[in-house]
Every structure is written in C-alpha cells, then in structure tokens.
From TrEMBL, chain A:
CDD domains: HisF. Its EC number is 4.3.2.10. GO terms for molecular function: imidazoleglycerol-phosphate synthase activity; lyase activity. The keyword Cytoplasm applies. It is an enzyme of class 4 (lyase). It is found in: Cytoplasm. The lineage of its organism: Bacteria, Pseudomonadati, Bacteroidota, Sphingobacteriia, Sphingobacteriales. One of its GO terms (cellular component) is cytoplasm. This is Imidazole glycerol phosphate synthase subunit HisF. GO terms for biological process: L-histidine biosynthetic process.
Automatic annotation (TrEMBL), chain B:
Pathway: Amino-acid biosynthesis; L-histidine biosynthesis; L-histidine from 5-phospho-alpha-D-ribose 1-diphosphate: step 5/9. InterPro entries: Class_I_gatase-like, GATASE, Imidazole-glycPsynth_HisH. It comes from Pedobacter cryoconitis. Residues 4-190 form the Glutamine amidotransferase domain. Pfam families: GATase. The gene is hisH. Gene3D superfamilies: 3.40.50.880. One of its GO terms (molecular function) is lyase activity. This is Imidazole glycerol phosphate synthase subunit HisH. SUPFAM superfamilies: Class I glutamine amidotransferase-like.
Amino acid sequence: MLSKRIIPCLDVKDGRTVKGVNFVDLKDAGDPVELAWQYAQQGADELVFLDITATHERRKTMIEMVKSVARQLNIPFTIGGGITEIADAEALLNAGADKISINSAAVKNPQLIADLAKIFGVQFVVIAVDTKLVAGRNMVHLNGGRLITEIETESWIKQAEDLGAGEILLTSMDHDGTKQGFDCRLLDSISKMINIPVIASGGAGKVEHFTEVFTTTGVDAALAASVFHFGEIPIPHLKNELKKYNIPVRL
Amino acid sequence: MIGIVNYGAGNIFSLTSALSRLGLSYGMINTEQDFEQYSHIIIPGVGHAGAAMEKLNQTGLVESIRQLKKPVLGICVGMQLLTAHSQEGDAQLMNIIPLETKLFDKDLGIKIPHMGWNNIEIKNNLLFEGVENQTQFYFVHSYFIEYNAIFEIATAEYGLQYSAAIQKDNFYGVQFHPEKSGAAGEQLLLNFSNLKQ
C-alpha cells in the first residue's frame, strides 16, 4: 500500500539552511547536506528545500548545494524558490533534484507548467499554492501570503492539474505558523477535486494534527518545518503514532 | 565495472551518486564498443517512454543491448524499454521481455502519478538478496507493466497488481528508483553488481 509521506521543509539562504534548526547531535546546523542526511536517517520520506536567497549569485549557489545534497542523500528531494524559467529547472534536474516546486512564476505564466511537464515529465513539476480565506473565498496569494491575487484557489489548482502539474503543495496561510492544525476542510475538498497527489502544509503543531489530516482528508503527504527542526516531533515517533491509526507509513 | 547506457533520457546524477556511495565504479556507454569494458549494464530512464525509446534508437545501441549476455538492469522507464510496447506515445520498445506497458486507470480511484513509497511482494531472487519481503521502495510513474506470472520477481499494488520488478534471463527491470529508496535501494544496486554472468 502506498505510504503517506512525511516531508520536512528546509529554508535555504546562500546555500545554508536557516531558521534555527537544533538537532542535538548536529555539528553544523547550517549545513544542508548534514541536515538532509539526518532527516533521511530519521525516516523522512522526502525533503523540500526552499531557496530564499535574494542575490544574483543565487542560481550558482543553489546548484552547488543541490549537487552536494544529491551526492549524499538516498531519498527524493524537491527544490523550490526563484525558479522562473526552463533553464533554472534543467540546471536543478542535472544537479540531481527529483522535483522542482514553482509558485509565483506559474501564476504569472501558467504556460510554464505545460512547458516543464512536456520537457521533464509531470513527475518533476510540483505546483506550490499559498491560499488564504478572503470574504468566504479561498484566494491564491503570492510573496508568502503578502500579495493577494484575483484567482480562486480551487480554479487555479484545477488549471494547474490540467496544464501538467504532477503534484500540488497546498499551504494554508490562515493556518501556517499557528500550530493549530492543518486546514483539513480545504485540503479534503482539493484532494477530492483533482487526480494528482496533494501535500498538506501549514499549521502542524503536534502529532494529532498529522493523524487528523491523514484520517479526515485524502492528502498524500504532510509537510512541516519548525516542529521537525526543533525536535518537537521526532519523525520515528510521529510515524509510530500514525501507524496506530492504521495510516500507512514507511517505518 | 558498471556501464550506464548514456542516451539522454533524464538525469543520472542521483544514480551515479548512489553507485559512488556504494564504492561501485561505473562508466558511460556511448558506442557499441563501450559494452565490452563493463561487466554489468544499467539502462536508466525518466520521463516519456516513447521519447526515451526514440532517443535510444538514435544511439544505435538497441541491437547490442538485445544481444547482451551480461546482467542488465533497467530502472523505471529503463525497465519499460525492455518490454514490447508502451501505451505512452503508442511506442514499440525493445521487446526483450514480451510484456505491455500501460497507463494507470484513474477510474480505479487512484491518483496519477503513483508517487511515493510502496511495499513490494518479493519472489526469491538474487536481486533482492537481503531485502525483506514487503520492504518499501520509492516509485514515481504513471505507466506500469502488467502483472505476469512468468517474468515477475516482485509485485506492487496500486489500484491493481502490477510488476515492481521483472526478469528474463540476464535482463532485470525495476519500476521503482533504487537510487532513491534508502538503504534497501542501495542493497539492491549492490546485489545487481554482484550478479554473475
């Protein structure tokens, strides 16, 4: 049976992981390679690296990082952040990334999804969507939730699927950072609406939130950052708890 | 030494990295003559099976591959290329193993692509030596090879039973990605490198 995936998300700046990661036995918390390896050892099913570098050197730095990670890591990983054209995607693929995640660039130019899917295959293309409830409607937001668009989340996701997205990474900005649980209602309706995998993101605070999202929605994976980085939820413990609820996991 | 058929279908950095971690040396096969240097052959592959076959045809290596008596391992689309035909692009493939590669049927209530870790039912085979039955491997694909009793060496289930791994004589194929499947995947690559001719 296909397992539900647990995916830690790491922010990367100038080739270094940021946002206070504090594993006890970590020599260098800023080293993406060491951190990735630790997560793989713990039983993470996949990793997402989100590049928040804003300098001109970003692409070069990122490619070097992706190569070092790919050399060491024996589980799949996704790279997101700042990918706006085919050349970016191709460089990341050749450096060993399994998937790329695009957000704003796809909203601004939906054809990019179709082009990427055609060249690299749908399995390579993750569409990240940041959504926020505005006057009763789920609206797509850009720039980490700061910029509202006129696009409704449901219709955008449907369009992304039709264009060739292989997976949807859906972050509820209303839940993100609250640690009050995932947006299960929205996640369930989205995962029923489309026929590609959905990754739940935003709101994880405790083990029960993962149990809830997997038992009450059809999502395929759950992503979180701080609860994993600060060791609040050790992945082996999380997976054992999920198993108690007959949620298929890889142990 | 392992030879990787270099025909331009997808990225092989992850594969070569896995081989390096295992201490297995490898090289690239670009011409017919290159086959002689290697004891084991890997056919990688990601993406569209029809497009991959077209690229493989352009290398002119297909007949040499068909004649090989050395252990050959096709990975993902590389496995599908061993079969007779794929629905993906209605493509005629190498037909080394007389099977059909088909598209998953979303009416079975499954999401496509089949993406993530799934357990497999393993038959007794040297390729899986030391790998426990029901171990999970990492899959990512929309097309699958039909279940068959003759060539099947591991079975996966996703909406239906299908071939996670097949073998005919010296030709092996795995639908999952051993280079992305943690310790079990590395064990499989090591087992492959130990297969005798």
